[in-house]
Design goal:
The structure is a single chain. The chain is an all-alpha fold and 283 residues long. It has a domain of 168 residues. Helix 5 runs parallel beside helix 8 and helix 6 packs across helix 9. The radius of gyration is 19 Å and the shape is globular.
């Protein structure tokens, strides 16, 4: 192994992404000191992370032509607002189901007594498993692609359009992520911080940032990996995981080509592209 590439990857480090993740423990400590509730922690952490990535996209973009225009920012803000409402409604349903499940279960869940060092990575990995398979299926089944297609509409990748997701797509990911957490009895704290990590990773892997995560690409999701998923060529459009590459590695859909990137991103070649972006209707 070339040790110089370990410490100095081609193109330099993607410091905005790394610093965002390194700030999470300090954020957890600060939120605890201030006594913030889970909803505030998740909302503020997500918006602050999005603002941080968008700032650095202006300062050191991977591709200047991928910068979001004012029209695109307005579109993405609208999608963020709609999905925030959908996510909040789904959260209420899940909270009710969780209370019912906890009252009905005879014994505590297997994950209830895990230490945070074990609970957090396990929650992240399990929280990615269901969405991984649904994401993979959405690229193969036309009735799922109808909803997932919106996310592949832009011909550029940036933190802003990472939130361009159909509400139905958001819902299936949310329920697939939370279900194993509830079934296995993860603590509320483990679920909160696993959810925030996954959310920040979703923003970061779409960000138009220069640099690489080097050998960390084998452990966590990155823009370098996720750009391949948005390739217009179906043979390259793998890497269905976002927070972690684990399930892609285990199930044969991992694409990692250090120093390279897809020639074009956006709508899959061969798929009929409508004149307007698909949203609440079919594509």
């Amino acid at each position: 192994m070339n040790t110089s590439l370990f410490f100095f990857p081609r193109g330099g480090w993607n410091w905005p992404h790394l610093s965002l993740l390194l700030a999470l423990p300090a954020y957890a400590w600060l939120a605890g000191r201030l006594g913030w509730q889970a909803d505030l922690i998740l909302t503020f952490g997500t918006l602050a992370g999005l603002a941080w990535l968008m700032l650095w996209e202006r300062l050191r973009p991977a591709r200047p032509d991928w910068q979001a225009s004012a029209t695109e920012l307005a579109r993405d803000l609208g999608a963020l607002g709609v999905n925030a409402l959908v996510d909040a409604a789904a959260g209420l349903l899940i909270a009710g189901a969780a209370l019912h499940w906890q009252a009905a279960r005879a014994q505590p869940g297997l994950a209830q007594d895990l230490t945070p060092v074990l609970a957090l990575p396990l929650a992240v990995a399990l929280g990615e498993l269901g969405p991984y398979w649904l994401h993979r299926a959405a690229h193969r089944l036309p009735w799922l692609w109808r909803f997932h297609a919106l996310h592949h509409w832009p011909a550029a990748l940036n933190a802003s359009n990472s939130v361009l997701v159909h509400p139905v797509n958001l819902l299936w990911n949310k329920f697939a992520r939370v279900a194993p957490w509830l079934l296995l009895g993860f603590s509320a704290e483990a679920m909160l911080w696993a959810a925030l990590f996954i959310q920040l990773q979703s923003l970061a892997v779409h960000a138009n940032l220069r640099g690489s995560l080097g050998p960390l690409n084998w452990l966590i999701g990155s823009a370098e990996l996720h750009r391949w998923h948005h390739s217009v060529q179906a043979a390259e459009a793998h890497n269905y995981g976002t927070a972690l590459p684990l399930w892609d590695q285990l199930f044969g859909s991992f694409v990692h080509r250090p120093g390279a990137r897809p020639a074009r991103v956006g709508w899959l070649a061969g798929a009929v592209r409508p004149r307007r972006a698909p949203y609440l209707g079919c594509c």
